[in-house]
């Protein structure tokens, strides 16, 4: 009886072993990698470059391509950009304080545009120099 149990255990472990992965095949004409392609009821290995086909008994072959996941979207809850402040009257609410920054919006040989943002109502306006 002990021999029968041992034989059953050996059969179970032999069945659980994963099948060997098929090796990568290369085209004999141009050297490119052959990819599986279904042709009627059979699957053949075919070259994407020159069209060379290799007939092979293939059952379960998959091409898996791993893609990097893009970084998540960053959401800014509050705009805490440290900008310099100046005394400038807001055209909307007439507040006297505004943040400012300069940005090159036109050609490089022209002066930059100066932007202002009101500290009270957050209205943005620009002045050209």
Structure, briefly:
With 129 residues, the protein is an alpha+beta fold.
Characterise this structure.
Among the domains are: 24-64, N-terminal domain of TfIIb, CATH 2.20.25; 85-128, Single Sheet (N-terminal domain of TfIIb). 12% of the residues lie in helices and 28% in strands. The protein is built from 1 helix and 7 strands, in the order αβββββββ. It has one helix spanning 2-16; strands at residues 34-39, 42-47, 53-55, 85-87, 97-103, 113-118, 124-128.
Question: Sheet bearing the most strands, described?
Answer: 4 strands, antiparallel
**Average pLDDT value?**
78
Number of strands: 7
Provide the β-strand percentage band.
25-35%
Corresponding CATH architecture of one domain:
Single Sheet
Fraction of residues in helix: 10-25%
Structural class: alpha+beta
- Radius of gyration from the alpha-carbon trace, in angstroms: 35 Å
Topology:
Layout (H helix, E strand, L loop, with lengths): L1 H15 L17 E6 L2 E6 L5 E3 L29 E3 L9 E7 L9 E6 L5 E5 L1
